[in-house]
Amino acid sequence: MLGPVRAWRDDVELELGPPKQRALLALLLVRAGQPVALGEIVDVLWAQDPPSTAVNVVHRHVGSVRRLLEPDLPARAEGSRLVRSSGGYRLNAEADTLDLLRFRHLSDSARRTAEAGEPERAAELFSRALALWQGPTATGVPAEIQPHPVFSGVDRELLAVAKEAAATALASEIPEQLPTLLQQFAAQHTLDETLQAQLIRVLATTGRRAEALKVFSTARDRLAEQLGVTPGPELRAAHREVVPRSTPAPAEPVRPSPPAARPIPAVRPAQLPPDLPAFSGRHAELAGIQTLLPEGAETGSPAPLVISAIDGMAGIGKTALAVHWAHRIAHRFPDGQLYANLRGFDPTGSMMSPNEALRAFLHALGVPPSRVPTGLDAKTALYRSLLAGRRMLILLDNVVDSQHVRPLLPGSPGCLTIVTSRNQLHGLIAGEGARPLTLGPLSPAESHEALVRRLGTDRVAAEPRAVATIIRLCGRLPLALAVVAARAATRPSFPLSSVAAALRESQGNLDAFAGADPSTDARSVFSWSYRTLEPEAARLFRLLALHPGPEVSTAAAASLAGLPLRVTRALLAALTRAHLLVEHAPGRHTFHDLLRAYAMELVQDHDTDEVRRDARHRMFDHYLHTARTAATLLAPYRTEPLPLSPARPDAAPEHLGRQDRAEAWLSAERAVLLSVVEHARDHGFPSHAWQLAVTLELFLDRRGHWQEQTAIQRGALGAARALSDRLGQAHSHRTLGFAEGRLGRYEEAYGHLERALELFTELGERGGQARTLRALAFLSNRQGRHQEALDHYRPALDHYRASAHISGQASVLNEIGWTHVLRGEYEQALAHCRQAVELHRRIGDPSGEAAALDSLGYAYHHLGRYEHALSSYGRALRVYREISDRYLEADTLHHQGDTRLAQGDLATALTDWRRALEILQELNHPDARVLDGKLGQYRQWPQPASTLSG
C-alpha cells in the first residue's frame, strides 16, 4: 500500500484486476481490520456521482477480490480474510502481511521506545518504518480516486512520522539510511517548510553541510516562484544553524536569482453577508454547533482545525443559520472572515470552481493579482500558507460535494470552516472529520416565532387558528413561511384567515409559494436540486409523488418504479444525499409536504397517464400481495380465500418468510396500508381496495384498531359496489359488521352482517356464511343472548363440516365452548374445548390450539381446578410466544392472573397483569384501559394476599 498497490501469494505477484477493483482492494487494505460501510465504498470509488449499478458493481468486485486472495476457500467460509461486517466488508490482515500495518507497528514501537528513554533505538525503528515507503499511497488506482482523503490521510501519516523520525534522530545518533529517506519525503513535499528545515539539520549533523545549504536555497526559490513568499521563521532558523554568523557561507554557483519576494501585507477581510434581521429559532442547533468552537479561539492558543458541515433540503434555512452563527462568533476570530457562495445549485449552472474561489480569497488576503499562482495546487498552497498561524472564520456556502470544497479548507489550527450544502458531504465527514448537522423543519414553536418576527406579536396573537393553519400548510419550512409572511406583511389590512384560506385552496401545488424572485420561489428553488439528478433518480423522484404516504419502503419504491431492489437502493440514496427525501428509519423514506407537491407537479407534467397508471398498479400489487403473505403467515387457517389476480412481474412483493417478520411488516406499514385502500379506490383500482381491506381485518382487529377498521371497510364496501362485485360486497359487509359490533354499534352491525349472509347464501359461499354466522354469534354473546349465539354457531358448524373445513370446525367448537362458559355450563365447555384442541392439533394449527387451550383454562378456573387452568394457560402462552401473537399472549396472561388471584397469590397475579398491561400499552390496544383499572384496585391493597381469594 505504501506506494504502488501490489499483492503476492507464495512469492507470486497477483494481477489485481481492473482499476475500480484495484481501488476497492486498496480501500479495504487501508482500513484493514475495520468494517468499511457499503456507502463509504461507493463514495470512494465514484465520489458524488455513483451510477445506479454502483452497489452491484461493488458486490462483483468483492467476489473477485475474495477469489483473488483466497482461491481455495469457499465464499463465507470460516476463517476467510474478507468478510461481511456492519453493512459493508472487512479485510483482516496482520502486520507481517501488510506494509501499512507493519509501518504502524514499527512507528508505535518507536514512540514507546523514545518514551522509555532510548532515542537511538527509537530513531532506528522510525527509519525501518519509513524504509517501507515506495511512493504516494495507492499508486496505480485511478487518478480521480487516489487523492481521496482515505488515501491522502495515509500520506499525511507518513509525513508526520518522517518529521517525528527527524526530531528523534536529532536528539540522538542519526541512523545511516535516515537522511536518504528524508530526502525522498522532502522531494514529495517541497513546500512543507518544517520537513525541509528538519532535513537541513539532519544533513548538517551528518556532515553534509553543502547538501543542507542546497536544500535551503531550493526551498527558498520554490516558495518565491510558486507562492510568492519568503521562507518562514522555522526554515530561516535551520539555515542560520548551518551558517553561523561568524562563518561565511560557502560560495554557490553563479546563476540568475529569482526576483526578491516582497512580503504580502497582512489584511483582515470581513466578508460575511449581513445577518438576517428576522432570523429566529434553531435554538437547539445553535447550542449544538457552539460546542464545535475551538477552545483556544478566545485565549489565542492554537486550537484544532474544525469544520462544520450543515446540510438539508432546499429552503430549510442552511445559509441563514450559518450566517447568523458566523456573526455571533466572528469576534473570536480576530484575523477576519472569508465568505464564498460556491453556487453549487445555481439555476443558471454557473457554479463557482475552487480555482475561482481561491483567487478571490487570495485577493481578499492582500495578494496582488500579478502574484496569484496559476495552478489550483499552487493557489491552495499559498492560501494555506497565508492562513498558517492565523485565526480566521471561513464560510463556504452552497457547496455541491466534498471535492468542491477540499481545496478551500485551511491546513493549520486556529481556523473554523462552516460549509453548507443541499447534499450530505460524506466524503468531508469521513476524510476531514467534519462535524455534520442536518437541518429539518422548524418546530411549531419556532415557526410561530418566525411569523411573530415578520408580522408582529399583535397580528399573530389575534388569529391563533389561522396561524396554526399557515404553519401546518407551510410544512414548517423557513422559505415557505418567509414567502407567506412577506405577502401578509404587504397586505396589513388582510386578516390572516384569508392567507390561510388561500393556502388551503392551493394545497397540493406550489402556487401559494411562487414569486418573482427565483431565490424565494419554492418551485424554482426546488428545481435547482432536481436538475442535478441523473435521469433515473429524477424519474423515481417524480413517481414517488404517486405514493399515498406517509412513508415509503425501498421495496415499495422499487415496485412503483418497476426497478430491481439494488438499483432502487442506489437511487434512493442519491435522492437522500440531495435532501429530496429523508431516510427517517433504515429503508424507510419520507417527503417534505412541499417537495411532494413539487414532485406531483413534475409527474403530472412529464409523465403520461399510462405511465402513472402502470406505476400505481405495480404499487398496489406490491401492498396487496405482501399483505396477503403476511396475513397468511400470521393465521394460515383463518385467511379468507379471495380471488386475487397475480402480481405484475415488475412489481416486487416482499418475501417475509416468518411470522415475526410478517407481524413487523404489518406494524411498520399499517398507516401506509390504510392510505393505500383509499388511494386504490380513488384511482381506479377498486378490486385492490376491497381485497386489501378484507386482508387486513384480522391484524387490525387483534390490535384493537377498530375505528381504522370501520373506516377502511366502508371504503372497501364502496369500491365493491362501484364494481358491482357481489362477493366483494359480501366480504366487506361482513368485516364492517364485525367492526361495528366491536364498537358497540349493534344496529349497524346486524344490518351489515345480515346483508352479508344474504349475499354469501346467494353466491353459495359456505365459508362466507359460516364466518358471518360466527360474527352474529359474537354479537349475541356481547349482548348476553347466549342461547341465540348457540343458534348461530350450529349452522356455522354444519357449513364447515359440509365443506370439510377442519380449522373452521375447530374454531366454532372452541367458540361454542366459550359460550357455555358464559352460560355457566363449565363441563359442557370442557367437552367442546377439548374437541377444539384435538382438531387444531391434528391439522397443525398452533394458534387455534392455543386459543382453545385458553378457553379450556378459563373453564377449569370456574370449576375451581386451578392447577389444570394454569397448565392450560402455560401451554397457550408458550405457543403465543413462539408465533409472536402478542395480543393473545396478553389476553391469556390476564386470565392466568385471575387464576393466580383465585389461588390467593396476589403478587404473582399482579406480575401477570402488569406484563399483560405492558403488551397492550405497547400495542396501544383499548383493552389496556380495562386492565389498568383492574390493577388499580389491587396496587395499594392493604390486606394479606390470602384474604383476597374470595
TrEMBL record:
DNA-binding span(s): 1-93
Record keyword DNA-binding present: yes
Biased composition, class Pro residues, residue ranges: 250-262
Keyword match DNA-binding: yes
TPR repeats: 730-763, 810-843, 850-883
Keywords associated with the record: DNA-binding, TPR repeat, Transcription, Transcription regulation, Two-component regulatory system
Domain OmpR/PhoB-type: 1-93
GO biological process assignments: phosphorelay signal transduction system; regulation of DNA-templated transcription
One function term, GO molecular function aspect: ADP binding
Top-rank lineage group of the source organism: Bacteria
Annotated region (Disordered), positions in chain: 241-271
Family: Belongs to the AfsR/DnrI/RedD regulatory family.
Name of the protein in its database record: OmpR/PhoB-type domain-containing protein
The species this protein was found in: Streptomyces malaysiensis
